[in-house]
Amino acid sequence: MIKNILFGIFTLLLGIVSNAQDIEPENGVINSKETVAFTNARIVVSATETIERGTLVIKDGVIINVGAAVIAPKNAIKIDLKGYTLYPSFIDIHASEGVEKSNLKKQGMGPQLSTLKEGPYYWNQSIHPEVDAYTLFKKELFKEKDAYVKQGFGTISTHQRDGLLRGTSVLTTIGANATQEQIIKTTAANHYSFSKGSSRQSYPSSQMGAIALMRQFFYDAKWYSLQRANTDNISLKRGIENLDLPQIFEVSDKLEILRAVKLAQEFNIDLIVKGGGDSYERIDEIKELGTKLIVPVNFPAPYDVTDPYLSRFVSLADLKDWEMRPYNAYFLHKKQVPFCFTTAGLKKKTNFLKNIRKTVKHGLPKEEALRALTQNPAEFLNVGDQVGTLESGKIANFLIVKGDLFESGEIYENWIRGERTKIKDINNVDIRGKYNLNLNSIVYGWDVTGSAEKPKSKIMSYRIKVDSVTQTSKKDTVKLTPNLVMNDLQISMSFAEKDGNLDGVVQLNGTYNRALGAFHGKAKLPNGDWVDWSAIRNEKHKNVKKTKKSFTVDTSAVDNIMYPNMAYGFDSLPTQESYFIKNATIWTNEANGILKNATLLIQDGKIKAVNKSIVQIPNDATVIDAEGKHVTCGIIDEHSHIAISKGVNESGQNNSAEVSIADVVRSNDINVYRQLAGGVTASQLLHGSANPVGGQSALIKLKWGFTPQEMLIDEAPGFIKFALGENVKQSNWGSFNTVRFPQTRMGVEQVFYDAFIHAKQYEKEWKAYNGLSEKKRIGVDAPRRDLELDVMVEILNSERFVTCHSYIQSEINMLMHVADSMGFTLNTFTHILEGYKVAEQMKAHGAGASTFADWWAYKFEVNEAIPYNAAILHKMGIVTAINSDDAEMGRRLNQEAAKVVKYGGVSEEDAWKMVTLNPAILLHLDDRMGSIKEGKDADIVIWSDNPLSIQAKVEQTFVDGMLLYDWNRSVQLHDRDQEERNRIMQLMLAEKNGGAATRKPYKKMNPHYHCDTVEEH
Amino acid sequence: MKRIYSLLLVFLIASVGFGQSPSPQKQQYKRILFQNGSAHIGNGDFVQNSVIGIEEGKILFVKNALTYQLDKSDWDTIISIKGKHVYPGFIAANITLGLTEIDAVRATRDFSETGSINPNVRSLIAFNTDSKVLYTVRTNGVLVTQSTPRGGLISGTSSIMALDGWNWEDAVYKADDGVHLNWPIKYVKSGWWAEPGPNKANEKYNKTRDAIYTFFQEALSYSQVKDPAEKFLKLEAMRGIFNGDQRLFIHADYAPEINDIIDFSRRFNLKHPVIVGGYDAHLVAERLIENNFSVMLGRPHLLPEFDEDYTYANYQSAAKLQKAGVPYCIQSAGDMEVMNARNLPFLAGTAWAYGLTEEEAVASVSLNVAKILGVDDRIGSLESEKDATLFISDGNALDMRTNNVTIAMVKGNFIVLDNHQMQLSQKYHERYGIE
Q1: What is the pTM of this model?
Q2: Domain count within chain A
Q3: Do residue A182 and residue A271 come from a single domain?
């Protein structure tokens, strides 16, 4: 025990000793380490503790004492801060200023397939955990320093904002001294993002590719750390080492927060997420993640909505976002999500404090604002013992503020490590007032106005004029504007007179006497004579008191969140209810065919009863009279590209089996709602067709208003997209894309064989390893986990199904040969426009078809596509579906199905199955969807007419027993949206009239993906 | 009846040449009567049980069969179309049909000339009557097209072409019917197409608009000299615009641009200004009517422009213009427009479902188009003295399920309703022994 105490004392002493010594040799004699005491100040020690009147003592850049009863040491320099408040200064832990940028530059127009970074680094240029910002942080690059200091910052953590794994940030105070005296932590946090940054390496080209790459990197790094490798790799090492640091992930919006945390959770990584400022839209889900947030305050300017036509370009989503962003911090506070603020994203750092005040006006309590600027960021980076509050022992980083920092207070000084930066002068003399200026017996009037810091003045030169006729005299006044410079108590001033008391320039210099309110000094006259001058104030400057706006907090708008927060969003999420539909014509897709005058009961999200004579109708059931209407199960689109974020193709490699659309589902795509309005209830969101082995699919229900995770179909079978032909060989990508293998159909075959043969070897290696006893595993390296090959193995083992984009008979045939020889079955050929030529082979192989009703002529390989394809395949006994591949067509697949009646004479019932039951079979979902049968999911559509008729309109669409689209309610939502637009536009116009800067309306465009939509950054 | 069989035989013989485009047929009958079909006249009228007389390629009359006194000897052939529907040939305006074969193959793309002001380039002479696509379009009842150049500020001059002929010379309905002007848009797209950026104000809008005014001013002055000593092709090509012989087709969608276009039209006193696209046309309907505009409405099968729009906004546009009294028609320009031309009837069908009456919907792809293109003296409706450019469908032609064209005539000649797709279908049906 005693030993411990002694040790404690020892370390304490050591601490003091080391503080007192300089490591660096001084050029000259050692400077004194002055003690400074700030007395009579109001001291905001932390978010929870304020001393109304107290003293803060600092020495050597550190706070050594603080309190109400603290007496300033005798040797201390005392600064009387009566009327001022001390606040801890701010910390920005997501800065990227002052850090040198990557200088790797791609050459030429062709694709860059490998990294430009030479050395023991990861193969992908966007992954560089080895980049340490402390080696790149340069004072001369830190151009924003003054702005930071003026906005109240004392500490920043800055990093190279580039790439997926960006490396570490450096935590530094931003005082005037040399950098080595400022840095608190060389490696403060480890940074990530979904943006590949300056890398022009082809891979990854999409967000799902970025996610997959990061995932693979973590597996690689883990594997590498357990490996007796004979090469050294810094990236892989640092990838693991950096995990000991706080982990900061930058994303751009609420959905990406969910994605980032989901990815991190796979590797048990706790994240601090720098969001996009719109977390309020998914606040409950974000709260559930238990993550910390870094919040930007780059609030958008109001749009100029003067013109009724042009203002349509601004979507309701954007209008609402403008209104709600200032409330974001309030939402986080209410939900008790720990967060801190950052300047990141602000075009002008000088708007930072202004916008923080805006969040306070929008409900965030002042103490929470302070916490988010000081303690929270400090604690997030585990430096709460060094910065963030004004407790003794901490770095002397604080602000001297007049007034309330979060209302209209002004920062006078920003002290960083005990170094003073004056922003406004505390001791500023206020010379304003009315004077009589006596210059060599000439009396002038002198009015000093303007601000105390920057006084302006006028000199009145009086002359007596005598009228030669009447001999009466008249006083004439000439106003002169002198140059005036006040420096502490010294004044310099000059003015020029013409034909007055004097003629020429008069220069004055003098001293101000604070007690008397008077000046005296010497002046030089135009003739070169030096004379005395003095000025005595006879009237003090009167402050014209502005009527202060009372400080009000308004949170009235926070209840206006919709799901999703945009046009046609729900005010509250729909729930599963009971519906009893009667008098309907029901297309069952079952053996009983089309039932006339039939009934249907929906309960608990399932189909409970179909045309049963005795049915227990629940009391709370809504009865729908469907007289004259047709009722079907929902349409299933086997081939869709809606609701996908940032790239439908991972085109960077010819095999991207590791990527998954499920990682990037975009729940707030308006096309989800539009397709509900077309009777679609489920879709396979497919990867594009830019490479032979594409990515994994997301099978979703079109649950408008819900989160991406909720839209994914539970326990859906795994699917992957393959592709053949012109797209994968980059035929139509322009003349520079002639580098990536394959460029011919011949090469396409080899990509598949290569992948599958490797996958077999890979599986063998794993089986061998897994077969070893624990004992025997010692000394044997585990095989490297390869996410791409994992998926290929799943395909070989029929644990994942293939949907293959295909056109020409030769390549379709080829792929079936590949699959046969590798021992698996191709599940679906999609597009399959020449399927009619190889129907027998397809049937023998066991593949299904998902095709267009009538597309052709858009590229060479569809030259023999015929609209009779679906009919022929169907007649040959192949499960055939009609798909969209297009957001517009996806909402009228009923019309496309009807074309199969026209081209090839398929019966209406069978044609209808091509957009319902058959895609369900192809997706292995026919046990839950695709027909109207007891126990299946209540995905139901009520049509105004025969669904194949040109007259058919969707009246209601149910998904899992929830009414998600209703013709009549759509009109109500439309009207509500118009009112909501109007309400917010009024606010915008009021801001414009109030003088706020506005921006021109602009329209955010919705990406409209097809198979061959290829991303090139 | 014998005669009908012989007629069918003609079709069969014609389709023997597998893989070839069907040949234009020579008419062997001077006087033809279609009996007992439901006639959709094209002008809004409907005759449930009709007789349609045709002489030397022209329609003699359309009458009610119940009151018509038939004298069999009057006719070289009488064709019963009982229970079937007869329509005027549908007209696909504003598309590149015949000017391109395969979208992705540059060598087949003949619709967009380099340079920005090209009124002198003419689609007429590039129109390929052997395009395989044509024959997949006319089998759905689309028998005439306005073959239209694209690109630049002034794309060129279009022509009205029948989808039948040995060469453009005999396919042409009206050569050089109008000049196509792509009005600049006030908002331009930014970002890249997969991850689009915001639509931003077009800084060059005024400059581009000024360039149009300048060119038109120059062309107007030039047109006032009958036989100028020095000839300029571009200015010569504009003459018809000012004397009213040709239409000016101005491509634009939004109200602010359309308002500018109306001002422009007034300035140059245009005789037949036409808005092509016209997403917002219903919003400025009155001004359009006052200033003698017509609208060739964009494809109904398009996504709404704005999130807040009704999901079916484009489906309803035709009905809105119909109600407002703006002369309009439906056209189908857009993605894959060439192959999609065969879906024109179903675009009209969709407009029918969303507010037009059936006959208004028929008119929107027949007589309305002919009027706007200035060829309604010859085609567009089943009225006497017009060309027998018409087709007969087993069922309603505006519905996919029932559109089944069994007989069609262009300029009074029967056309072969066969195409390579039907042939391929037949080939494989035979191979597999399926029906």
Answers
A1: 0.91
A2: 2
A3: yes
